[in-house]
């Protein structure tokens, strides 16, 4: 079990009341902290996966060896034909840029010339940034996806972006990725997914409802909140409405936990705003599933526990590292199934390969 969050509740409450930090990661209350500024772009940095220095990678894959022997169902070039756990066959680099309303960090696989792959947009949680999920996003990209993390979010007491502005920035990132991005020619614009954690999961739900181009949506412990004092509005909509969750028709998966559903000054994933409420509000998408991670907490759906912001979410009793390995593998499997057409990946989501400790509450 991890021990990343050790700050006392009283100290957290005091800082929250003073407006120095957010009042929990419910996805909406705002403070003056800002996500990591990746600066204007584009700029390129090498993102080096494990094993590139000559040692073996954890999954046994050696980059550059026999990569051209497997063709996925979409005809988009070589990809890992087996397990979604661990790294896939592609090495990954990062590119940063600015779009309307925020910054983006793209994880781009090294593809053969002329190859196109699906695009996945990712929206981080409250008081977090793409950097808190970099390991997971690199893993997804290594399986043959261009992954674009969108950096913008709310600050406290009236500052920062609203949910609606975050939605619009995510759509601007989509347009950039398939239009003017340096890697745009490698993106298959007919295969686009969106994912998000916490507040970002709420925004991902909004994007899926607003954008007909979205072909698959994955929510990581989403929170449908607007803060301790604000009600729903056009800027902070209730995504359980028929116009939003009820209107989504493309495949959607919803992950979550119940250990942060209550307690403290403000729970990080309140029971009346959590993943179960969003799943229950879905209409009739072509595929849907809800997963409950026993022992997980809200910040287990980051790579690193969320740093300072994560200290306000109580630690769950489960093995943090194992939980992270599990949801990363399931994220890869979800998008390989629903954007690449790999039906065998469904076994990781609703079949015998579903990791232990995860319950499929409902499935198609």
Show unreliable segments.
1-80
Q: Average pLDDT value?
A: 81
SSE sequence, one letter per element? HEEEEHEHEHEEHEHHHE
- Strand proportion, as a percent range, falls in 15-25%
CATH homolog superfamily: Alpha/Beta hydrolase fold, catalytic domain
Query: What's the CATH class, please?
Result: Alpha Beta
Q: Which structural class best describes the helix and strand composition? A: alpha/beta
Number of helices: 8
The helical percent reads 10-25%
Radius of gyration: 19 Å
CATH architecture: 3-Layer(aba) Sandwich
User: How many domains, in number, for the residues?
Assistant: 1
Distance between the termini: 32 Å
The main pleated sheet reads as: 10 strands, mixed
CATH topology: Rossmann fold
Strand order of the largest sheet: 1-2-3-5-4-6-7-8-9-10
Principal-axis shape:
globular
Summed up, what is this model?
The protein has helices at residues 9-18, 134-142, 163-178, 199-210, 275-281, 307-310, 320-338, 347-350; strands at residues 43-47, 92-99, 102-109, 117-123, 146-151, 187-197, 214-220, 252-256, 288-293, 358-362.
What would your notes on this structure say?
The protein is an alpha/beta fold. It has one domain (30-362): Alpha/Beta hydrolase fold, catalytic domain (Rossmann fold, 3-Layer(aba) Sandwich). The protein has 8 helices and 10 strands. It has helices at residues 9-18, 134-142, 163-178, 199-210, 275-281, 307-310, 320-338, 347-350, and strands at 43-47, 92-99, 102-109, 117-123, 146-151, 187-197, 214-220, 252-256, 288-293, 358-362. It has a 10-stranded mixed sheet with strand order 1-2-3-5-4-6-7-8-9-10, sandwiched between helices. Helix 2 links the parallel strand 4 (117-123) and strand 5 (146-151). Helix 2 (134-142) runs parallel beside helix 7 (320-338) and helix 3 (163-178) packs across helix 4 (199-210).
